[in-house]
Amino acid sequence: MLNEAENLDNSRRVGAEPERRVRDRGATERAILAAAKGLLAEEGFQNFGINAVARRAGCDKQLIYRYYGGLDGLVEAIGADLGTWVRDRIPEDTGGMFLLTYGDLMERLALLFLDALRNDPLMRRILAWEISENTEQVRRLSEARSKALALWLERMRGSLAPPKGVDAAAVNAVFIAAIQYLVLAGAAGGQCAGVSLKTPRDWEKAATALKRIVRGVYG
């Protein structure tokens, strides 16, 4: 017969079990998402599947179905995570810089975006897929990033406006495309159009060129 202390100890263990499972679920979900992102960054969609993600996450594949609804749900979660990527890598604080003009804003965005892409292999993969793979999964990831960037710009611009006569939407699209190509070319071959993109000094020169182009358009 169990004594009173044993009964109390058992009740505590039983009561704690649901809480432990909740904590374990959160950790497992994060592990699955991290494994999926790592697999995509290293191997792309060609080897991206439930079994591969489960092996990398060290969990039963049924948990991916339970927590994410399968592969499509996992891609949706990665897309949602790209909004967090923009918030974390392209912060909305000005870093001590006074944004007095639209040119100030676009210069800051250009430099932050350049640095963020250079340090994120998964995002570089997504950029490469955008121009080489016209699949639903790639479109969803691309749209998630583009939407997050547009929201960042809308929040940050406030009353700042581009100069009259400048098609800011078109100009900014060209700026973003140039930054993306620079980063992809640097990662693939260490150069772009004969300009070296290997050392920190090389990238400083590229950043200076970007600033001059931005100021040339927006002042």
UniProtKB/TrEMBL annotation:
PROSITE patterns: HTH_TETR_2. Residues 9-22 have a biased composition (Basic and acidic residues). The keyword Transcription applies. Keywords: DNA-binding, Transcription, Transcription regulation. Residues 49-68 bind DNA. InterPro entries: Homeodomain-like_sf, HTH-type_TetR-like_transc_reg, HTH_TetR, Tet_transcr_reg_TetR-rel_C_sf. This is TetR/AcrR family transcriptional regulator. It comes from Rhizobium lentis.
